[in-house]
Design brief:
The structure holds two protein chains of two kinds. Chain A is mainly alpha-helical. Chain A has helices spanning 2-13, 17-50, 56-65, 71-82, 97-107, 109-123, 125-133, 138-148, 150-165, 169-175, 185-194, 198-226. Chain A has a single domain (2-226), classed as MetI-like (MetI-like fold, Orthogonal Bundle), CATH 1.10.3720. Chain A contains twelve helices and no strands. The N and C termini of chain A lie far apart (42 Å). Chain B is an alpha+beta fold. Chain B is built from eleven helices and 21 strands. The chains are: A mainly alpha, B alpha+beta. At the A-B interface, helix 7 and helix 8 of A face helix 2, strand 6, helix 4 and helix 6 of B.
């Protein structure tokens, strides 16, 4: 065990090209998925928050329930959509980095929407009322509410990124774990164990842990800033 | 700006907050909306400020129904400004908060700076202008919110409990400021309050609300002196309202009585004497109270924790709140001869 750890640390310290390549690709893919998901589902969450309609509470409840949807289910769904016989099969995206980005963006959508709605609720109606009472349009008032929660948005983004970077189901099913192309930290750890290269698996595991800890630390800092402490 | 609410119903969640409210606010006046907590006063302000739409009923501005199209509705809403009871300030400096409504209207540059500076000056906030939004006391927050509202020069200013969390000297300066805005700019003002003194000190017209309805409306003194129902009488009963008919300086005449006041008053001024500060005795008092008059009891009604006893002193009626124990001890009953007395400091004057 000790030798395994020493070898893993040695590979990281030596900036092993394979480990670094997989780590950077993982960061890039999960960052892209997070940005895409925030751009698509953040405004949707804001629209749900700022409008009144029948079943709004039930919809928000459903979104929050989907926080913990199994990653393989999303992987399976995206696989079926992108496979040759699926509705988007003609795009030829299966087993590409783009497929991983799309799948992870979908996976973290409930987290982005649920936390975004919670963040907007946290600002309170007072801010919106103040803006409207001073002559803001509905859009201006909504933008002020979004702006008031600016530090809390960092928490939303980091939590969503944390979920994306640590998932394995989507990356494996729609990425295919192709070396130098779609291999990520989680799929590479799985492969490393499978083929008996435990040192690489541990080295990649350490990198994943470092990323996860960094995300948690930054989320805590953002949370403190949003509370003004 | 003239405002009219016609048969307005409104609900929050599942409970009705307004039930067929009628309200007419004449252009250029200060109109108080008074009632107990939860009677729907704040909802009236939200509706008047077009912050929310009524479930049913009409809102007329200058005789025209408020348009439903959002752009036209926004144009009408921008003629109003609302100061809530507990204002929330936006992130940033006090200066940024005061100029916020102007920026929302697309006003920038010199005009933004000048109008913001004027509003800061008017509300005595110049020294606080660069402080952060979260470093102010309740009174300072209220002044900031009022400055932001004043900066946009609204036709209709909506104030929810404007004097709450303000100490007496600030109360007086805020009152003078609101009166000055009304007089100099012709701004129509609606003040929601649960305090008779606030209504008296500011407003010319008054609508009293109870459980989402307007139970009486009219000139402030008429409503308070001739209440139509027990609810208003209870509100009005907390204060004796007497109109000065003559005299000069701090010694004025009300009917046949001469009343000593803490400050000089002129005929036409209203004197307000809280019933709780009026005392009764069966013989001439030996206290230092300089206002003392003989009279006889004409009415005695259960009131809050005791009785509201009305005494006719010559041609003036004065009410006092008396405990049940005192009524029994002094054998107070209609027709009983008594002395009414109160200190000079109990007398407030309103022009």
């Amino acid at each position: 065990m000790r030798e395994l750890l020493v070898e893993a640390v040695r590979r990281i310290a030596a900036l092993d090209p394979e480990v670094m390549d997989i780590t950077l690709r993982t960061l890039l893919l999960s960052s892209s998925a997070t940005v895409l998901s925030c751009l698509l589902f953040g405004p949707l969450a804001a629209t749900i928050h700022f409008t009144s309609f029948r079943g709004k509470g039930a919809l928000i409840g459903l979104v929050q329930t989907l926080y913990s949807v199994p990653t393989v289910l999303i992987g399976l769904l995206v696989y079926l959509v992108l496979s040759r016989s699926g509705p988007l099969g003609g795009l030829g995206l299966l087993f590409t980095p783009q497929a991983i980005v799309a799948g992870q963006a979908l996976l973290i959508a409930p987290v982005v929407m649920g936390l975004a709605i919670t963040t907007l609720r946290g600002v309170g109606s007072g801010v919106s009322d103040t803006a409207l009472g001073l002559g803001a349009s509905r859009l201006q008032a909504a933008l002020v509410v979004v702006q008031q929660a600016r530090h809390a948005w960092a928490t939303v983004v980091l939590m969503a990124f944390g979920r994306a970077v640590s998932e394995v189901g989507v990356a494996m099913m729609v990425g295919g774990n192709i070396r130098g192309h779609t291999r990520t930290l989680t799929t590479a750890i799985s492969l490393g164990i499978g083929r008996g290269d435990n040192a690489e698996a541990v080295a990649l595991g350490i990198m994943l842990l470092v990323v996860a800890l960094a995300v948690t630390f930054l989320a805590n800092v953002a949370g403190r800033l949003s509370r003004g402490t | 700006m003239e405002l009219e609410l016609v048969e307005v119903h409104h609900r929050y969640d599942r409970s009705a907050s307004l039930q067929g409210l009628d309200l007419h606010v004449a252009s250029g006046t200060i109109h108080a909306v008074m009632g107990a907590t939860g009677c729907g006063k704040s909802t009236v302000l939200r509706l008047a400020g077009l912050l929310t739409k009524p479930a049913s009923g009409l809102i007329l501005v200058d005789g025209q129904p408020v348009p439903s199209r959002s752009r036209a509705r926004l144009a009408v809403r921008r003629r109003t400004a609302t100061v809530p009871q507990e204002p929330t300030l936006l992130r940033g400096s006090i200066r940024q908060n005061v100029g916020w409504g102007l920026r929302a209207r697309g006003i920038r540059g010199t005009e933004l700076r000048e109008r913001t500076a004027q509003a800061l000056d008017l509300l005595q906030l110049v020294d606080l202008a660069d402080r952060r939004h979260d470093s102010l006391s309740g009174g300072e927050r209220k002044r900031t919110a009022l400055a932001a509202a004043v900066a946009v020069r609204p036709d209709l200013l909506l104030l929810d409990e404007p004097f709450s969390s303000s100490h007496p000297s600030l109360r007086r300066s805020l009152r003078e400021l609101i009166l000055a805005i009304n007089r100099t700019l012709g701004t129509t003002v609606i003040v929601a309050t649960h305090d008779v003194q606030d209504a008296l000190s500011l407003a010319g017209a008054l609508t009293v609300m109870d459980q989402g309805r307007a139970v009486q409306a009219g000139a402030v003194d008429e409503v308070l002196q001739q209440p139509h129902c027990a609810f208003i009488a209870e509100f009005a009963g907390t204060v004796n309202l007497l109109r000065v008919t003559g005299g000069s300086g701090t010694s004025c005449r009300v009917g046949e009585l001469v009343i000593q006041t803490p400050e000089a008053v002129v005929p036409g001024t209203f004197l307000a004497i809280p019933s709780g500060q009026v005392l009764l005795g069966v013989s001439e008092p030996t206290t230092s109270a300089r206002n003392r008059y003989p009279g006889h009891i004409v009415d005695l009604q259960p009131f809050e924790y005791g009785f509201l006893v009305t005494v006719a002193c010559a041609d003036v009626r004065i009410s006092a709140v008396v405990t049940r124990g005192s009524v029994d001890e002094l054998e107070l009953a209609p027709g009983r001869e008594v002395w009414v007395y109160f200190k000079v400091s109990a007398v407030r004057s309103y022009l």
